[in-house]
Amino acid sequence: MISFVNDYQEGCIPEILEKLQKYNYCANPGYGVDYICENAKKLIKQAVKAPDADVHFITGGTLTNKIVINAFLKSYEGVICVDTAHIATHETGAIEHGGRKVLTVKNHNGKILPRQIESMVNEHIGGLSREHTVKPGMVYISQSTELGTVYCLNEIKEISAVCKKHGLLFFIDGARMLTSLFAKDNDCTLANMNAFCDLMYIGGTKAGALLGEALIINNSLLKKDFRYILKQNGALMAKGFLMGIQFEGLFENDNYQKYCKSAIEKADKIRMALKNKGIKLEIDSCDTQTFAIFTKEQYQELQAHFDFGGATFKEGLAYARICTSWATTEDSVNALVTAIEKL
Amino acid sequence: MISFVNDYQEGCIPEILEKLQKYNYCANPGYGVDYICENAKKLIKQAVKAPDADVHFITGGTLTNKIVINAFLKSYEGVICVDTAHIATHETGAIEHGGRKVLTVKNHNGKILPRQIESMVNEHIGGLSREHTVKPGMVYISQSTELGTVYCLNEIKEISAVCKKHGLLFFIDGARMLTSLFAKDNDCTLANMNAFCDLMYIGGTKAGALLGEALIINNSLLKKDFRYILKQNGALMAKGFLMGIQFEGLFENDNYQKYCKSAIEKADKIRMALKNKGIKLEIDSCDTQTFAIFTKEQYQELQAHFDFGGATFKEGLAYARICTSWATTEDSVNALVTAIEKL
Amino acid sequence: MISFVNDYQEGCIPEILEKLQKYNYCANPGYGVDYICENAKKLIKQAVKAPDADVHFITGGTLTNKIVINAFLKSYEGVICVDTAHIATHETGAIEHGGRKVLTVKNHNGKILPRQIESMVNEHIGGLSREHTVKPGMVYISQSTELGTVYCLNEIKEISAVCKKHGLLFFIDGARMLTSLFAKDNDCTLANMNAFCDLMYIGGTKAGALLGEALIINNSLLKKDFRYILKQNGALMAKGFLMGIQFEGLFENDNYQKYCKSAIEKADKIRMALKNKGIKLEIDSCDTQTFAIFTKEQYQELQAHFDFGGATFKEGLAYARICTSWATTEDSVNALVTAIEKL
Amino acid sequence: MISFVNDYQEGCIPEILEKLQKYNYCANPGYGVDYICENAKKLIKQAVKAPDADVHFITGGTLTNKIVINAFLKSYEGVICVDTAHIATHETGAIEHGGRKVLTVKNHNGKILPRQIESMVNEHIGGLSREHTVKPGMVYISQSTELGTVYCLNEIKEISAVCKKHGLLFFIDGARMLTSLFAKDNDCTLANMNAFCDLMYIGGTKAGALLGEALIINNSLLKKDFRYILKQNGALMAKGFLMGIQFEGLFENDNYQKYCKSAIEKADKIRMALKNKGIKLEIDSCDTQTFAIFTKEQYQELQAHFDFGGATFKEGLAYARICTSWATTEDSVNALVTAIEKL
Question: Which of C75, C228, C229 has its CB closest to that of B232?
């Protein structure tokens, strides 16, 4: 059984494994103020070309979203995002548990349009009893999106401009940002995405680290006392160097590039095979996720040898997500491609 | 420079490192429902002799304390603990941030006395305007304590009895529980501590894991839907198997025992050297922590070669904590002992 | 200028004013444990025919909604309601500030359909990663609704049945419940609405009291320690008897009936005049609120003499709410009716 | 039975009762933006000589404390106060429920000393792991204190200076501020207290209003969007004019003065009688509260005719609080004085 269930099923890239061994008996200061973390942060700041940014490592995406949105919005402010956003759908109400309202708008292929932000702000401003409603305070997007699509640089610039105009913070969830850099529709770099937002995070977990997201704070008003906030939220690990090791491993010599590129190439190969076979895609995605619409029979056929982590069945069709990762092998993909051809 | 700064400065025991390599390319289900976690949980349930308990892995102690206390107390209930408790002093108000009040009583060598719990409950019950005050709902202790002392089994039984009598939950923070098992004053086993509490956690981080605490829920009223609570608090790691690996590594073949025993033996050796030299201890601790009172001169002398992570200075004396870990070598300890003898 | 802005613009019914004078120099126990409150609660329990219910007085609707939903849902549970619900739109995110997610479905004339509840529950149960999403825990409706419509008894029974089936709490916001009893579409009594829900509140403010909502808790699992919760939320007034006076004034001799009936009769008269004149209504409401669609010219004409608290303008039309109250006089209504006729 | 149980057992001063009738049929805008509120705010700003301050009315003290401390402290900041402070003891953990930690120091006759604030700040700054502890962010005092003592102007100035030095907000809870103005130990005016704090509130409830506290925000950084915060916390009353009436009634023609003066004179008379009789006082209070230590026999004797709301018994003595109010009559006090003389 070959698994294409998700992009976090394997451990870490070999460079990280080696570092775990290399550093294992070093005596590091606790809570992330060690030299490994310092070096990893330096590498990230170089990669995003933001020498003055603050970088913090947090174990996972939901914890990062919850902390950021709770810390940087006032209690009566809300975060604008699409209805398919991770914070709106798959975090068990973490944002609301942290006291903030999620203000959703309908997605367009997983993306938000600048005019949707504009009209939500205007509705609020124009309301007869403004203070009885939540005030928009932040825009949240994911790059790539939950539907596997990517924002092009121009879209990010336009969102940024609307945010600036209305005094909204702009926050990019980059759980899949590193792989998305190699997606066919992408024209962004880490540096130019970072240049247009107040804060963003680069996901390590889905790019070949064991754990960890690297939060980059650009807006200097948001930097003060952030380690207090991390500690209070249970997000300062005693062995903080563990996360330093992950990001040193990813960014040293741009290691992440070969692995992330590979993950996307494998996904593209699968998409090509599906198209050649005439199997429809639910969404025209370009990251590690492919959303295929099989007949029930096709799905059962593939299920004998491949694991997609389940499917949703509607009117005789099986909607399945096929996911590649940094660890997906040439052999696995070839096996799947062959199987698709034979359907 | 040899460091005795804390018990979380090094990576992990070699058995865990090996497992990281062994499992690196396995395709695991996400979020901790994998076979490694299942096996690690089985090993822990055997170790605590609680086949019906629920076990969950959480990245760190503060996050565990915050989640447990928020989830299992009602909003108007408070947690009773000593004034030196970690939740009262070193978690940046995480418990209050989660909405619960910490009700402190004066510690006796880091410990709480059953009659202190009794009188806090009675004060509440006897109060003229009871509902204007927070209702005691839980007792929190640490084993070993923040001051390096340990509760003996009889003390734990007595606390448990008071809790049962008054309907309080009894929660043991075991960040240093595994090493404390080998402390000279200890007469508890994992199984008998667990038998007397509603829930406790066994710390991996300070026992030789890279991260992770294993929360054991005995009280069946507290088990339902706990994974929702973890997810909502950002505590369900995508690569949950990473924590399974840690605890499989610690508990397989009782690996933790040799490492934890070593950490305590090293600390005992240091304490012996200090006593022989006539250097006073601030507290008669018996875990990996030793609280020495040096003269300023002695401290400066040692500082040239040893790092204790700073000291507090009062009236010409230096109060320093010396900490050993699973990774502390024979050579390091001998060097320190020799230096102490020469003071 | 005659105001039809809302149903809370005047003070209180004369019976309450008299009681304020009568009781002014009595020495009452504080925080609502006085004889006036006791008597008011007794009258309410008789009115709803629920001798075993618990009744609590809370200053306002938003505070009541926030407290109830925070107290009775678990942190990972959400409250299902229509998109036009007060808690979803006009409470500045109070529910989310209290840590709970509001799960909205599209309204049908301001109302929720049983099958919408059913499908939201089923979606959750059937989800691939259930614990990553908020669990439905309560259904919230308003009687009358935000759009001025009323649920008939059968609809309430059906909602109650779906809630029971799926273990959801059923909560009725009755900010306008007393007046709605006299609405033409209504076939409910206080007693039979109360018989089908876990808890509901009867609004005093919009029925002729100076302040206060009477929360009725039927479900015995929700009764314990509720006064702790009130105090903690700043909802136990020192002079609690002030709210006792309001509800004694409303319910003694069924005083509320004549005033609430009058408010509805006045609104019906206005609706009749609008219909006769061919002026469209945005919604076919039947409570104290009438949602008229004027031409811009008609609206300006009326504005010279009547205050509706503003309007929303769309495509040359003015959408205005006309609201009556217990204090609306025959003269005021006649003046408006005449003005409408002359448009 | 004559009651001296508390200072909130009666209704309101006659001037307020008259206003309730006078304004009863006026059509006021909702939520406190009416002319009565505007006028009441104007009168208060004149009384405190702060034309630029913002004034808001909130139903009660606990709600005000909870809102202010939650809104104006960051999540990781704490509020410093004495161990007898209302927020530390009698609000059922409202402050913690709002997510903030209460940092208590030992009281000196109910008061905090500037050097206690200083050393709490210094301890935090000097700590080895600062970000693991809560950061002091505000000082909270009550005027008069829970023990019936008052701060003199010089003490308030000194506290203010320490707060300014360390960037702490200074907040005065004035639940009993109006009566305390007439206490023998008092040398403050409303204006000069207000001049030295960032925000304070003047209690209406205990000064002869039916409900309400008037929050005065001086610090302009705290003014923005405060009505959003009020609404979100359920503290914007629909009939907001009800609170406007209370404070117009208290401050018009300085009405409060004669009533508050009377309340203190009555308490002074009781204290004099106790002293003459040789009955000890637990605290040398000077506000409406007198803390007497009776023998059990004396207490029982008095209990036949006077209600003190219970007593605490220790070693054969009865510790009872005797409380006067604006409504306490000459006759009641004379009866008590006579009874004391006869003991």
Answer: C75
Q: Which residues contact D272 (CB under 8 A, 6 or more apart)?
A: none
What letter does residue C29 receive in the DSSP assignment? P
The shortest CB-CB distance from C205 to any of D26, D91, D238 is to: D238
Token readout for C32 is: 């609502």
Q: Smallest CA–CA separation between C317 and chain A, in Å?
A: 17
Q: Residue C332 burial by CB count (10 A; 0-12/13-18/19+): exposed, middle or buried?
A: middle
- Determine the 3-state secondary structure of A216 from DSSP: strand
Question: 3-state class of A137 per DSSP?
Answer: strand
* Neighbors of chain C by Cβ distance (3+ pairs < 8 Å): A, B, D
Nearest chain B alpha carbon to D79: B93
Contact between residue A79 and residue A139 where contact means Cβ atoms under 8 Å apart = yes
From chain A, the residues in CB contact with D99 under 8 A are 99
Rounded Cα–Cα distance for residues B252 and B244 (Å): 11
CB D259 within 8 A of CB D328: no
Give the pLDDT of chain D (343 residues) as one tens digit per residue: 999 999 999 999 999 999 999 999 999 999 999 999 999 999 999 999 999 999 999 999 999 999 999 999 999 999 999 999 999 999 999 999 999 999 999 999 999 999 999 999 999 988 778 999 999 999 999 999 999 999 999 999 999 999 999 999 999 999 999 999 999 999 999 999 999 999 999 999 999 999 999 999 999 999 999 999 999 999 999 999 999 999 999 999 999 999 999 999 999 999 999 999 999 999 999 999 999 999 999 999 999 999 999 899 999 999 999 999 999 999 999 999 999 999 9
A/C interface, count of CB pairs below 8 Å: 60
Residue B331: count of CB within 10 angstroms of its CB:
9
Query: Does the N-terminal peptide bond of residue A142 adopt cis geometry, omega within 30 degrees of 0?
Result: no
Q: Which residue of A has its CA nearest to B324?
A: A27
| Structure tokens, C10 | 């005047």
- CA distance, residue C313 to nearest chain D CA (Å): 21
Chain B partners of A211 at a C-beta cutoff of 8 Å? Answer: 211, 237-239, 242
Rounded to whole angstroms, the Cα distance separating D53 from C270 reads: 44
- Measured between CB atoms, which of C90, C100, C132 is closest to A96? C100
> What is the spatial distance between Cα A201 and Cα A183, in angstroms, rounded to a whole number?
18
Chain D residues with CB-CB distance to B99 below 8 A: 96-99
ipTM of the complex: 0.97
Burial class (CB in 10 A: 0-12, 13-18, 19+), D317: middle
Interchain contact, B24 vs A8, CB within 8 Å: no
Residue type, C25: Y
The two structure tokens encoding residue D148: 């019936």
Q: What distance in Å separates the CA atoms of residue C211 and residue C203, rounded to the nearest whole number? A: 9
pTM: 0.97
